[in-house]
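tokens incoming
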């Protein structure tokens, strides 16, 4: 496997990065993580990812034993050692193991890990060009009052259950609803819909994606009305355009919702707002205010 991992303060090959089955990160999903990408040798919005990672750890009372600068340095070093120009770079902090005989999370020694592997798309470019078929699941995203979705987490049983449902219904990916039946998010992405000329993305019950933030900022800069609000399923289904936002691919157009072409458009043909934001998103990857070059020397 191509890439480089960091565990127990050492850089190792990805296949050698292993944790104990007794780590609560594995046993209880008691962990948080973040994912940034490197595109053409440059990190995109690295500080924002590191800030979100530290905010998630603070909320979970996890301590990685590293400063922000040390975490950034490990991420850079994983990419440098792997020699990857386009990379998926993940940092994790797990609860670790409690003291022998204890079930008190305060007795755990938290663990920090990281890895860089080749870029992972939530849908590969060929699929993206064709357009993705999105299914609206009746599975509810875990309630925000139970697990705060702003903490990036591995509580994905709802997502995986919904994903199997989507495959059975002929779809390629899936979006989950909340208790009121409104749209939330899907496995690895936020959702946007252009409804009556305004771009709407769910306001609550979702991870505050860095790509979501980028899209909102770009929309404002381009004079496209944008709102964080509730997004009823009916609005998603009558939207003129629908797209996903994710570090795993940026702005990804949806061609069908529940098997019905978005706005009656042919598969693979996306609306002007999706295309404009997609172009602007990748354009920002050239902007020194948003990128940080990896030193491969
Ligand atoms: C549940 C969930 N929502 C949204 C996102 C998108 O977040 P970002 O744009 O920061 O990649 C992700 C990314 O992994 C995610 O896992």
């Amino acid at each position: 496997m191509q890439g480089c991992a960091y565990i127990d303060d050492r850089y190792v090959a990805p296949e050698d990065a292993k944790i104990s089955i007794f780590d609560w990160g594995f046993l209880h999903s008691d962990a948080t993580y973040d994912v940034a990408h490197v595109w053409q040798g440059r990190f995109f919005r690295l500080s924002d990812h590191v800030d979100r990672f530290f905010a998630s750890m603070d909320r979970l009372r996890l301590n990685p034993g590293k400063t922000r600068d040390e975490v950034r340095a490990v991420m850079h070093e994983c990419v440098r050692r792997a020699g990857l120009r386009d990379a998926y770079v993940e940092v994790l902090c797990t609860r670790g193991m409690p003291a022998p005989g204890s079930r008190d999370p305060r007795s755990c020694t938290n663990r920090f890990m990281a890895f860089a592997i080749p870029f992972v798309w939530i849908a590969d470019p060929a699929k993206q060009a064709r357009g993705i078929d999105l299914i609206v699941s009746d599975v509810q995203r875990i309630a925000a009052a139970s697990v705060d979705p702003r903490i990036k987490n591995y509580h994905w049983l709802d997502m995986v259950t919904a994903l199997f449902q989507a495959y059975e219904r002929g779809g390629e990916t899936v979006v989950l609803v909340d208790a009121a039946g409104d749209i939330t998010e899907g496995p690895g992405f936020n959702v946007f819909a252009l409804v009556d000329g305004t771009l709407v993305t769910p306001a609550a019950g979702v991870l505050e994606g860095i790509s979501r933030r980028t899209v909102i900022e770009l929309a404002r800069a381009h004079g496209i009305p944008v709102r964080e609000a509730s997004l009823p399923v009916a609005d998603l289904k009558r939207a003129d355009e629908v797209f996903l936002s994710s570090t795993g691919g940026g702005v990804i157009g949806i061609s069908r919702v529940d098997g019905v072409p978005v706005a009656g458009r042919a598969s693979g043909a996306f609306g002007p707002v999706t295309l404009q934001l997609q172009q602007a998103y990748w354009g920002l990857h050239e902007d020194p205010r948003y990128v940080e070059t990896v030193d491969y020397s």
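note: The helical segments are 24-27, 46-60, 68-82, 125-130, 157-168, 210-221, 233-238, 272-283.
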